[in-house]
Amino acid sequence: MASDIEPAEKDATPSSKESPEPTAPAHATSARDAWYPAGKRDLFILRELVSKDFKLKYRRSVLGVIWSVLNPLLMMLVMSLVFSFFLRYDNIEHYPLYLIVANITWQVFADSTNAGMMSIIDAAPLLKKVRVRKSVFPVEKVLFSLVNFLFSLIAVFIVMLWEGVPPTPMMLLAPVCIVLLMLFCVGLSLLLSALAVFFRDLIHLWSVLLMAWMYATPLFWPVSMIEQVPYHFVRVLMYVNPMYNFVTFMRDTVIYSTLPPTEVIVSCVVWALVSLGLGLLVFRSRERRFILFI
């Protein structure tokens, strides 16, 4: 009987060659992929944050993203009526287009810096739990403002058709201005977000500064009025004004189909680099202490 049992026991015990290899758990691949290199991880976080802000902005809205087109159009319509009839600025060539190009350029600057300034404070719950590059948050707010800006360009093309201004090859320079403006906004957002963590009064002060800055920039009034300012140093300040140069860059390429003056292009480049450099310097020197104040 022993000889009858032995083959059965041998068959019941699988050999090492016949034993199946251990299978990896279903979640092994996703766990491995979770360890992105720093660059890919930051891009992933940026994409997810922009997507989240975009969904939150238009959540429960009937028109949704259409508001990014309607809002600049309605603002342009109201301002055209007010300044054309009451302040007599209707002598400016293509005044509605003059208004809307300046408005969307200013708006992307104001929106990105306002949101960027609050980005670290608003991300406090996440920063206290997860180790993540802090500069991602102010940069994300600028990118989100850029997304809205790109949608608002549809409104610009509608007004161009209404005003009979055809697109020209010179408009291909407009993206250069947009890139420089985004760098300028990223630098300011990094600077403001770092300072706002330690000095909360800056949040209230910035809104006042933005209002003064807006009226000092020829958004709705003619650029020629700068020459009527009685004080020379004030005129110099208005010409050096970063937003004056960015708005002029956009208007020259989109409305007038001309190459912006050299000093305007140089000013845009210089302001973008100075803002970005100063913002990175201040942000990196203060970011280790954020956790103590947020």
Which residue ranges are poorly predicted, with pLDDT under 50 across at least 5 consecutive positions?
Answer: 1-34
Tally of strands: 0
Question: Gyration radius, to the nearest Å?
Answer: 28 Å
Distance between the termini: 80 Å
Number of helices in the DSSP assignment: 13
Which shape, going by the Cα principal axes? Answer: globular
Indicate the structural class. Answer: mainly alpha
Topology as a string of helices (H) and strands (E): HHHHHHHHHHHHH
Report the mean per-residue pLDDT as an integer: 79
Characteristic terms for this protein:
294 residues; mainly alpha; 0% strand; disordered N terminus
Topology:
Blueprint: H1 2-12, H2 28-33, H3 38-57, H4 67-85, H5 95-122, H6 124-127, H7 136-163, H8 174-198, H9 201-215, H10 232-240, H11 242-254, H12 262-286, H13 290-293
Helix pairs in contact: 3-7, 4-5, 4-7, 5-7, 5-8, 5-9, 5-11, 7-8, 8-11, 8-12, 11-12
